[in-house]
Amino acid sequence: MSRAQLSIPVGLLVENVLTSGLPGDEIIEWLQHRDYSQLLPLVKESAMDFDERLQTAADIGDDWEKAIRQGYEFKFLHINGLKRLLDFRFDRKMDRDYIQDELTLRHIHLTTHEMELLQSIIGRQWIVQAEVTEVSEDGKTESKIKSSSHIPVRIQLKFP
């Protein structure tokens, strides 16, 4: 089953409504009825114009319902969209949780599960990888990857 592919405005709408913590079917119902009264107090960015983003989805054929139910990937994602995604999905903010070096974000601490999830969402354009964290005695670099703990991650553009 293929994943929905979303534009930036629609993908960020999905991420924002998911921050509500409500079940996907409930979110879909509220959005379909254009009744945001239950969602707005719960989402991370209540000032987002849901009507405008739903209209964008309708205009360009982005299947936001499928995205909420089954997951999605971005068609394209610029660096600022990536930073907003990190905030919505993982509560990671620039200068607090990571640094930006041109088109690379560094020192983002994620679990391996979060890394895999992020790669599945942004993998068309971005590479998510563990950062090299230490040099062993024989001079080889190693990364510390533990399945349950947070590890330093970098995200870089595939085609700079």
Quick gist of this model?
By secondary structure, this protein is of the alpha+beta class. Helices cover 38% and strands 20% of the residues. It has helices spanning 8-18, 24-32, 50-60, 64-70, 79-90, 112-122, and strands spanning 4-6, 72-74, 99-101, 104-110, 126-130, 134-135, 141-142, 151-157.
Task: Describe the secondary-structure layout.
Layout: E1 4-6, H1 8-18, H2 24-32, H3 50-60, H4 64-70, E2 72-74, H5 79-90, E3 99-101, E4 104-110, H6 112-122, E5 126-130, E6 134-135, E7 141-142, E8 151-157
Helix pairs in contact: 1-5
Q: In what range is the share of β-strand residues? A: 15-25%
Could you report the average pLDDT, rounded to the nearest whole number?
92
Question: In which range does the helix fraction lie?
Answer: 25-40%
What structural category do the secondary elements indicate? Answer: alpha+beta
Give the total of beta strands: 8
Strand order of the largest sheet: 3-4-8-5
Number of helices: 6
Low-confidence stretches: 141-148
* Overall morphology: globular
Distance between the termini: 30 Å
Order of helices and strands: EHHHHEHEEHEEEE
Radius of gyration, whole Å: 17 Å
**Largest beta-sheet characterization:** 4 strands, antiparallel
Could you please describe the fold and organization of this structure?
With 160 residues, the chain is α+β, with helices and mostly antiparallel strands. It is built from 6 helices and 8 strands. The strands form 3 sheets. It has a 4-stranded antiparallel beta sheet with strand order 3-4-8-5, with helices on one face. A two-stranded parallel ribbon has the order 1-2. A hairpin with a 5-residue loop joins β6 (134-135) and β7 (141-142). The longest helix is centred in the middle third of the chain and has 12 residues, at 79-90. Mean pLDDT is 92; it is low at 141-148.
